[in-house]
Amino acid sequence: MKISKKAIPVLAFAVGASVFVSTAFADMLLGSGYDRFKNSIKNTAAQLETGLNSYTIEGLFSLKDNNQLLLQSTFVNKVEPGKSENTSSTQTANGETEKHYSYSDKKLSVWKSGSDDKYYATEYPDDMNRNGGKSFDNPFKEKGAQEVEKIVDAMVGNLKDNVQAEERPEGGRIYSGSLSEAQVPAVVNAVSSFGFKQMIGQQGRMEKEANLPKIESDIFVKKVTGKAVENKAGLLENVTGDIVLTGKDKNGVQHDLLLNVAVKLSDIGNTKVTTPDLTGVNVEKVSQAGGFSSMLVGKYKNNIVIEKNGKYVKIGERNLEITSVEQNKVAGKYYETVKPGFEAEYPDAYNFNFEYNPSQSRQMSLFTYTNSKGEQEQGQLHPSGSGKLYIDLNIEMMNGNSYRSNMNRQNFDGEMIRVFEE
């Protein structure tokens, strides 16, 4: 799912908020229906990854502050054997709406972002053996998933009976439950408060672009409700949930932040994906190596942050400029600026130009640059999301298919975010 560049900070909060209180929601489900519900989640995730031939997933996410809309995002993902299609629409607090589209099959991928009137298309050779219909990665197979599950299971408390598991006449079950303010464990509120403050501090543009209130005190989870409908095959067809996080800003004004989530799984075995007709539209072809296009020309940056005296301190910035993308060659420069007085905290700041040609390299394609000591090093660059690029420096190849980064800088962050306003 792709979203508006201006909605990224708000959605980051929305996702973050759900993560901070997810343990509370899980605790709510640790009742008579908990094990059944968890098994249903795992079964659905496994089937979405490899079991179902075709399906459609629709979703809606919204975030409100005292009933005022900050963000609303909808998406529809369709999958059939060898094909997938994703569409999304995002509305922000200022009323702006941006739509995004992508399509993929074994030989073609197409995407269009925001207000850009151009479609970008990549064609793939027959021997590439792409699986164009794969669009879901099972989170239970991710590294560390079992450890996270054990932590959630351990936080049971006295909430075992807060979930209702009702058998459906046609087969399957309905799971529902709620947590009030008094029932949310203290440890969840502590994590929520700390995590929310950290997130606000790291999202410098959040208040500007999304009107997100800067909550500073008395932060706690006020309410959690949820409902899930399972069909007779053990798949979750509908999941809805509300999370209310409350707190006060610096002026003592109370804010209730409501995150609403609704997801629907439908048309199992009957979903059809239509190949887009690009006749007569503005199309730019993009090389299949690296996924670079002229759309990525521009400036990117992130903050150099250290921990000092118990606080996070910004001591400078990392800057990446893509100056051209022509004939599969990417040209640009990377440089780091450090504030006066912090040179010892971040010595030997990088400053170099580079040319990157992934179309003439193997899968692990690299570029060469000169560091501040005059030494030759290797780096890698690739798109990492809407308005983002990821740069990795001082790379050492381990073999033909793997490498490691030898960056010894404190808290080096290679994810660069597009600069849209100076």
Automatic annotation (TrEMBL):
Signal peptide: 1-26
UniProt biased composition (Polar residues): 84-95
Keyword terms: Signal
Record region (Disordered): 80-101
Domain of life, source organism: Bacteria
Protein name: Uncharacterized protein
